[in-house]
Amino acid sequence: MKKLIIWLPVISAILAIAVEVLMQNGGKHITTKQPYLVYLLIGFLVIFTILTIMSYFNAKVKAWLKERDLFIAVAILFLNVLNIVTKKLALLPVIYFPSIDKIVSVIVEDREFLALCLASSGKLLFTGYFFGAIAGFATGIAVGFSKGAGYWINPLIRTLGPIPSTAWIPIVLISFPTTFSASAFLIALAVWFPTTVMTSSGILNVQNAYFEVSSTLGAGKYYQIFKVGVPASMPHMFIGLFNGTCASFITLMTAEMLGVKNGIGWYINWQKEMMAYANVYAGLIIIAVTFSILITLLFKVRDYVLVWQKGVIKW
Amino acid sequence: MVGEIRVEGVVKRFPQQDAEDVVALSGINLTIKAGEFVSLIGPSGCGKSTLLRLIAGLNGADEGKLYIDNEEISRPSYERGLVFQNPMLFPWLNVHDNVAFGLKARSIYKEKKDEVNKFVDLVGLASFHKSYPHQLSGGMAQRASLARALVNHPKVLLLDEPLGALDAFTRMNMQDELIRIWQERQTTMIMVTHDVDEAIYLSDRVIVMTPRPAKIESCIEVKLARPRARSNPEFLNLRSKILKILNFAGDEKEPNYYL
């Protein structure tokens, strides 16, 4: 029995294909040009059959598969159940809960337009993120090292910081020349606050002995700031950047849904208004995948920069 | 020879909230010859670490002055290297870069690259150039921090209980290493320690300090040839002499009897 567990993903995929092919469709789901769900499931079936067979010869594949075989099987089963509930039995309102087939078809057939939206969202996100992070580092370092800067800037951070940057939308959208610059500013603001707070608190928490040692080694003030204070507070900075990344996603989506006339957030909002819920789900799936990849990348960078340190947040 | 330290009438007070100032040093006069190995010993609160920090230039004296080679000490300098009890290696730099820190800070790393290798090898870490501090044992980390201070060719090396956190065997090894480096480099060494044996084993002179008021009680010359044996009668003699001074300063104790 235990030996069969490794085959569960394959069995689950076969079951899902059987249901999709053999079971009668119910309700008024729109039919797609191609049987995309069957393609997708056959893809899974082929991949997991190959992996399962390989696992008998390759210890690495076996370990990988053993760790997640149950999860994969249940995930495919979930798709299967979803398919039954929507396309097969139409138990949920058809207009709000389209078939998986339809969602996959949107991703495939609308891919060029989706890619354009994604690109324009990406451009906006990176512009805002870049300036927000730079400003955050600069403010954080200034506040962390200079009492004078702290005196003037801290009240500003304390009053402006906690305001969600999306709350500025009504003001910002009318005060900037373009919606792009306005939204980039909002994203920068969202990244700026956590980066500043974590950078300055990181610097203030650096053990004084590090500065003392460096001064007896001949380091001047600026050398101490950039070669002792900054690297020592790197772990905190990355927490700030991580929080800033999450805040920037929220701001990006809100800004696109409210003002900007392109991007993936705008796409979702637009499709919602057209009652094309399959497209809404397609957009959400693309957002989930993209943002997850971005955060993974951030953690890869952190692991590279902080090789000298053991993990702070696990992703 | 360079590296003579002169302390003239130094007073250091630490202000307290709602209480009288704590007098960490009350009128210290002391001259340490160039190339001498001196230990500061005494119970906690006798101001020995404070004195070391003043010589390093990390704190300023409230009264009196400190000089190195007749030049007043006003701020920290690479000429007075400091090694703490905790190695305080920069955790984000590997051993090589930690040792190179001082040279890079003074922008002379390019010309003196070989020095880094020399000193890393000198403290016996030749195969650990690329290791990060968290991968080192306590003794290895302390060696690295010694190399980091030495690579600057300080006139004076200040050691604040440098071997305090090490186990007994590593400690004895490191003592021999310190002596070897001192004999090779002729650097003035000033070491704070709690360990009477260590002080006698290493130093030319043991300076015994007492608290309340924090002052120098006596200076004891150790006129034993090196290498020294810890079981030498004169060694034991000095040991009981210092212990007596320290006990006298603290509570009187009943002698121990053999039953």
Comma- or semicolon-separated keywords:
heterodimer, A: 315 residues, mainly alpha, MetI-like fold, 2 domains, 77% helix, 0% strand, flat, B: 259 residues, alpha/beta, Rossmann fold, six-stranded mixed beta sheet, four-stranded antiparallel beta sheet, 33% helix
Report the mean per-residue pLDDT of chain B as an integer. 88
Distance between the termini of chain B: 54 Å
The parts of chain B where pLDDT drops under 50 for at least 5 residues are none
CATH architecture of the largest domain in chain A: Orthogonal Bundle
Structure description:
The complex is a heterodimer of chains A (315) and B (259). Chain A is mostly helical and 315 residues long. Chain A has two domains: 2-101, no CATH class; 111-305, Orthogonal Bundle (MetI-like fold), CATH 1.10.3720.10. Chain A has helices at residues 8-22, 36-54, 59-88, 100-109, 111-145, 147-160, 169-175, 179-204, 208-216, 221-258, 264-273, 277-305. In chain A, helix 2 packs antiparallel against helix 3 (59-88) and helix 7 crosses helix 8. The longest helix of chain A is centred in the C-terminal third of the chain and has 38 residues, at 221-258. Chain A is flat, with a radius of gyration of 25 Å. The model of chain A has no long low-confidence stretch (mean pLDDT 89). Chain B has a domain at 5-81 and 152-249: Rossmann fold (3-Layer(aba) Sandwich), CATH 3.40.50. Chain B has a six-stranded mixed β-sheet, with helices on both faces. Chain B has a four-stranded antiparallel β-sheet with strand order 2-1-4-5, covered by helices on one side. Chain B is an alpha/beta fold. Helices cover 33% and strands 26% of the residues of chain B. Chain A binds chain B through residues 207, 209-210, 212-220, 223, 227-228, 231-232, 234, 306-310, and chain B through 56-58, 75-78, 80-82, 84, 86, 88, 90-94, 101-102, 104-106, 132-134, 148-149, 152, 158.
